[in-house]
Amino acid sequence: TGSQLREIFDKINNLLSGKPVQTGGRTVSVTQHPQGLDFVYYKLAEKFVNQGEEEVASHRDSAFTIGVVTSGIWELHPRVGELFLAHLHKKCPYAVPFYPALKEGTSMEEYQRMLGYQVKDSKMEEEDHFLKRMSGLIRLYAAVIQLRWPYGNQQGTHPHGLNHGWRWLAQMLNMEPLADVTATLLFAFLEVCGNALMKQYQVQFWKMMLFIREDYIPRIEEITSSRQMGSLMRFKQFLEECLQQKEIPLPKGALQSSFWRS
């Protein structure tokens, strides 16, 4: 509920502000150690990113509740935002966006890790699991850039707003697509913040959508084998419906004003 989320937010904010906080039956404060605050900044940012690949990957709608807390804490404590991006980019280079190239002298296992795969005992994770985690991280990022904590000071600008999403989209479309990955991530991103981008960029946004349909999807099709068609078909269907209706629907799970009264 909205009231539970406020409680969580206030607890995190109090901890970062140096106030004593009750947790697990004891009182903790970042002032107890000279590096206490730096440590908490780092671990909190890591925790937000972990929620993207675990929670959001399994329950898509949670991108909004986790995203609004991340965005609000970022606004009050900019260091958390910098570290959030660092953890995000390390786990998911596609959030930069960047496709790491295989360099001479890099082992295959190391390269797979650079691409974002989890490698345990020289065994690479399944492609489905990998794509699910990556789209969870992109969904969280797409939620963060459009959301603001409703109880904060709304005078300033968002610390990492929609313009970053517009830039991400443009950069993605300037890169050669990767089979499965590109279609999955574009779909995840547009499903979560397409509505917000449409309202902000209007005519420019629809030009971008037409470019994806006419120019970019054929390029994805060229490199996609028949067994990898699932994510591309879902993305194409979403795009067609949006272009026909001249509307990107409000994402499922978006926080309405009634949520904050719950």
UniProtKB/TrEMBL annotation:
Q: Where in the cell is it found?
A: Cytoplasm; Nucleus, Nuclear pore complex
Q: Which InterPro entries match?
A: GLE1 (IPR012476), GLE1-like_sf (IPR038506)
Q: Which UniProt keywords apply?
A: Coiled coil, Cytoplasm, mRNA transport, Nuclear pore complex, Nucleus, Protein transport, Translocation, Transport
Segments passing through the bilayer: none
Q: What is its main location?
A: cytoplasm
Superkingdom classification of source: Eukaryota
State the Gene Ontology BP annotations. poly(A)+ mRNA export from nucleus; protein transport
UniProt key word Cytoplasm = yes
An example GO CC term for this entry is: cytoplasm
Q: Which GO terms describe its molecular function?
A: inositol hexakisphosphate binding; phospholipid binding; translation initiation factor binding
Give the function comment from the record.
Required for the export of mRNAs containing poly(A) tails from the nucleus into the cytoplasm. May be involved in the terminal step of the mRNA transport through the nuclear pore complex (NPC).
PANTHER family the UniProt entry points to = GLE-1-RELATED (PTHR12960), MRNA EXPORT FACTOR GLE1 (PTHR12960:SF0)
What family, per the record? Answer: Belongs to the GLE1 family.
* Protein name, entry field: mRNA export factor GLE1
Please report the organism this UniProt entry assigns to the protein. Corythaixoides concolor (Grey go-away-bird)
